[in-house]
Amino acid sequence: RYDREVNNGHRSAIKKILEGNALPSLMMVLCISAIYSHPDVHKLEAVGTDENENSIKNKSLLAAKRNMPAHIELTDGWYALEASLDVALSEQLQKRKLFIGQKLRIWGASLCGWTGPVSFHEASGTVKLMVHVNGSYRARWDDPLGFCKHVGPPLAFKCIKASGGRVPRTLVGVARIYPVLYKERLPDGSSIVRSERMERKALQLYHQRVSKIAEDIMSEQDENCASTDDSEEGAKICKMLEQAAEPEVMMAGLTSEQMISFSSYQAKQKVC
């Protein structure tokens, strides 16, 4: 081990996690090397409850004991790290389903009390690994310790706990595909629910209305621009005729469009 760790630079899973070079949420196989706290609820339930005060105290103590997380020590073969179990795993520990020497395949764990890269000796007693039941599996006795290359088996729906952390993997079957519905909220507060076909039809009518409004605006703008151009051209012709020495000759040389612009300009001037 000295040759591998010091000379060759090999590091175990826990050391990589503590030094910040690996995520604690990765799939890994660890072994239970010690059990620090073991909430024994059965002893509390067996305590006599003759008096009311003692009964209330025992019930409150029992509830607090059940919610108290258990603490164990997990090792990767080289280094060990204290781990805090959630309520469901604490119950499994209480039922003796977790024991020293058992290997666990853990996924989705997190570090508590870790602020930055630390060595194993600095992290002792301050950094804990938070383990959840949804990401914990029993590992085979011959599974190698450390990080896993493959994801574990999918978790069945009946095994998923509501407060058991994230679910690493599961299998689902599509029983039915519902059609897509569209909901439009109207200005008066009411709403209309349409199917996909009706939504396409409503969208087509909407685009037609938008195109019609845009065409009307463009045509109105073109008319305004045309009238503005005619007025400007008529004003120029009128000014040129006023400055010309022989306006009759100049009038004879105007085109029909120029005559129309000049006539419309004169009509507007008379109205004004």
TrEMBL record:
Coiled coil: none annotated. It holds the Pfam family BRCA-2_OB1. GO terms for biological process: double-strand break repair via homologous recombination; regulation of DNA-templated transcription. CDD domains: BRCA2DBD_OB1. SUPFAM superfamilies: BRCA2 tower domain, Nucleic acid-binding proteins. InterPro entries: BRCA2, BRCA2_OB_1, NA-bd_OB-fold, Tower_dom. SMART domains: Tower. Residues 183-223 form the Tower domain. This is Tower domain-containing protein. It comes from Aegilops tauschii subsp. strangulata.
